Amino acid sequence: MSGETDIRRIIEKTLDKVCNDLNQITEKDDPNKIHALEASHCIRLSYYDRKDPLPPVSNAAKVSIMVKDSIRRSFNNVKGEYKVDNLVLQVATDLIVNDEFIVRFEVVGNIPEIPHPRDLLYLNACLFAFNKFEGILIYVTNEGKTAEFSVLKSTKMLEEIIRRARILNTLLRENKVPIVEPCDLCLKCNYYERCYSTERKTSTLSLESLLGLGKKR
Predict the structure, then answer these.
(1) How many structural domains are present in the chain?
(2) Is 194 among the domain residues?
(3) 3-state secondary structure string across the chain
(4) In terms of pLDDT, which residue wins out, 120 or 216?
(5) Which of 104, 127, 165, 204 is most buried, judged by most C-beta within 10 A?
(6) Which CATH number characterizes residue 65's domain?
(7) What is the pLDDT of residues 19-54, one digit of tens each?
(8) 79: domain range?
């Protein structure tokens, strides 16, 4: 019915607007202000999010964004900055416990055996922004399973995220698209088709013929 269609469109537009507002993690018009999230994950993704953004593809993805945001809003969500010359690295941490420990929650589908590099880079940036020595990274699944990892302050990791932030800063100012960074995020990324060109076709080749395993006469 047309009424149901209109209601669905209204709901989808509302979801789009909410998700777009939640993605405003930094001042997109100022390339000198780089959020640590932008620098810690794919720089190409961060560039597109600023220059030519796409909304989440599915409603499930939109709801997932809102759920993660609601979890973060349950905590203090303390914002901070780390300045290097004309570059400002922005961060936001979920909790600061006893004015000593930085706590960061990450909602995941499955508990990882070791922390993901992007999460370590981000939490380490928080340690420098708030001048703390140790952080706690907590992975949480939708089922409530958790895993905790302790992260110590590292100058080497800070140098890496600053390097990445400078690259993004330069490319934003010069309007140059960053190189492709193949990683596990690519498969679920909105910009997949901008980085990789694929077309599914039916092939006459078989695994046996490719490996020379065909029947011998």
Answers:
(1) 1
(2) no
(3) CHHHHHHHHHHHHHHHHHHHHHCCCCCCCCCCEEEHHHHHCCHHHHHHHHHCCCCCCCHHHHHHHHHHHHHHHCCCCEEEEEEECCEEEEEEECEEECCCEEEEEEECCCCCCCCCHHHHHHHHHHHHHCCCCEEEEEEECCCCCEEEEEEECCHHHHHHHHHHHHHHHHHHHHCCCCCCCCCCCHHHCCCHHHHCCCCCCCCCCCHHHHCCCCCCC
(4) 120
(5) 165
(6) 3.90.320.10
(7) 555 555 556 779 999 999 999 999 999 999 999 888
(8) 2-177
